[in-house]
Write a structure and sequence with these properties.
By secondary structure, the protein is mainly α. It is built from five helices and no strands. The protein is elongated, with a radius of gyration of 16 Å.
Length: about 100
């Protein structure tokens, strides 16, 4: 669906399904701890303090682990063809701005 300048694009559930599946596939490629961290923060909406308690680490260490998990996910996402197409990376060789 194309939107005019300044208009928001509204996509149907069917249009978003391939993107959702691609993201889920990328998350599944992460290690167990990274998957746990991303799920806990995004699905359960827990704080870094609570994440640290669940992992048995300090809040600061939980913050570092969160950053590493998201960096790993970002790398995997940047290599997925559906994500690349969606973000316009198809013809680009440099995706450092991802």
């Amino acid at each position: 669906m194309m939107a005019g300048i300044g208009e928001a694009t509204i996509e149907s559930v069917q249009e978003l399904q391939p993107l959702r599946e691609a993201i889920a596939s990328c998350i599944e490629q992460l290690g167990e701890q990274d998957q746990f961290i991303i799920d806990a923060l995004n699905s359960e909406m827990i704080s870094l303090q609570e994440l640290g308690e669940r992992l048995g680490v300090t809040k600061t260490h939980a913050w570092r682990l969160r950053n590493v998990a998201y960096e790993r996910l970002q790398l995997i996402l940047s290599q997925h063809p559906i994500i690349r197409e969606r973000l316009g990376f198809d013809d680009e060789t440099d995706n450092s701005g991802f």
